[in-house]
Write a structure and sequence with these properties.
Layout: H1 11-22, E1 26-29, H2 33-38, H3 45-59, E2 65-68, H4 71-74, H5 78-93, E3 97-104, H6 108-119, E4 129-132, H7 142-151, E5 154-160, H8 167-170, E6 173-175, E7 182-186, H9 187-199, E8 208-212, E9 229-232, H10 241-248, E10 255-259, H11 261-264, H12 270-284
Helix pairs in contact: 3-5, 3-12, 6-7
Length: about 290
């Protein structure tokens, strides 16, 4: 007679513990070509590997979350993806949660294939969470949501990004499918309401997060959806601790301010990168 397997600890609970122990700062491990050159490295697979694994050495033992951007590895083909696999594995071995920034979004079997690639522990790219795009309709993410729930993973959904093109879609008004009349609800608000539904009753924190830029200025959106927020644009792109407090208010304790260049430009000095993480986490602890 088979013994039922225990359900994995949900991502939201693991994230809550990690932030309490290590702080909220999330470092993006993004091997821009310009950064490789600043480090004195060639823009090739060898340079990519040296850069990425040095960053892992510096920040993964200290951060609650690291966020590799998949595109910067994919541009080198299969050998670059192999480096990404090492970044994921070595970051998790150092105790960091890995949020893989892939922003995938599709329908049906393709959405399921993305979920299997990034959220199933059997995959060499398996991560603790991914970013996803809901703009084919939030229901298109169902395979990712279901796979995340099954494996104790998380999904961070684009909601209010800080790129200048974002409002064209995110601030658009939804339409009633029966009459075709606008309801007055912004697309971003609808995304957040879906997240609130997914996270309802989760303790201490839901596993389904939103991506909300740290440089959006201000928002009237209801960010109390019982889930984490990834806030890119922190640091070198202009977002500050004061911005986090102002934009997110009481929800600031659930925010992961994310930066890459502010830390990565200090490399290849491992000690300097590590100190930047400690210093930023200390500043964020005042929220």
């Amino acid at each position: 007679m088979s013994t039922p397997t225990s359900r994995p600890t949900p991502f939201g609970a693991r994230l809550h513990t990690a932030v309490e122990q290590r702080g909220a700062f999330c470092v993006g491990i993004d091997p821009h070509a310009a950064l490789l050159h600043e480090w004195g490295l060639d823009d090739d697979v060898a340079g990519l590997e040296r850069f990425a694994l040095t960053v892992v050495e510096a920040v993964a033992p200290l951060c609650s979350v690291v966020k590799p951007q998949s595109a910067f590895y994919e541009r080198f083909g299969s050998r670059g993806v192999a480096v990404l696999e090492r970044v994921i594995a070595e970051s998790r071995a150092a105790g960091a949660l890995v949020l893989l920034d892939v922003k995938r979004g599709d329908i049906g079997s393709t959405s399921q294939a993305y979920a299997d690639a990034y959220l199933d522990p059997a995959s060499p790219l398996a991560s603790d969470a991914i970013t996803a795009s809901p703009f084919l309709g939030f229901g298109s993410l169902d395979p990712m949501v279901e796979t995340a729930e099954r494996h104790g993973a998380g999904v961070f959904v684009l909601a209010l990004t800080s790129n200048k093109e974002g409002p064209e879609v995110q601030h658009a008004l939804t339409a009633d499918h029966g009459e075709g009349e606008t309801t007055g609800e912004r697309v971003a608000d609808r995304v957040l309401s879906h997240l609130a539904r997914l996270n309802a009753g989760a303790e201490p924190l839901g596993s389904f997060g939103a991506v909300v830029g740290a440089t959006i200025g201000s928002t009237s959106a209801d960010l109390a959806f019982n889930g984490p927020v990834l806030a890119p644009g922190f640091g070198a792109q202009g977002g500050t601790v004061a911005d986090i407090a102002r934009i997110f208010g009481a929800q600031a304790r659930h925010v992961l301010p994310s930066s890459s260049r502010e830390v990565l430009r200090l490399g290849p000095d491992v000690g300097a990168m590590a100190e930047a993480v400690r210093r930023t986490n200390d500043a964020l602890a005042e929220l």
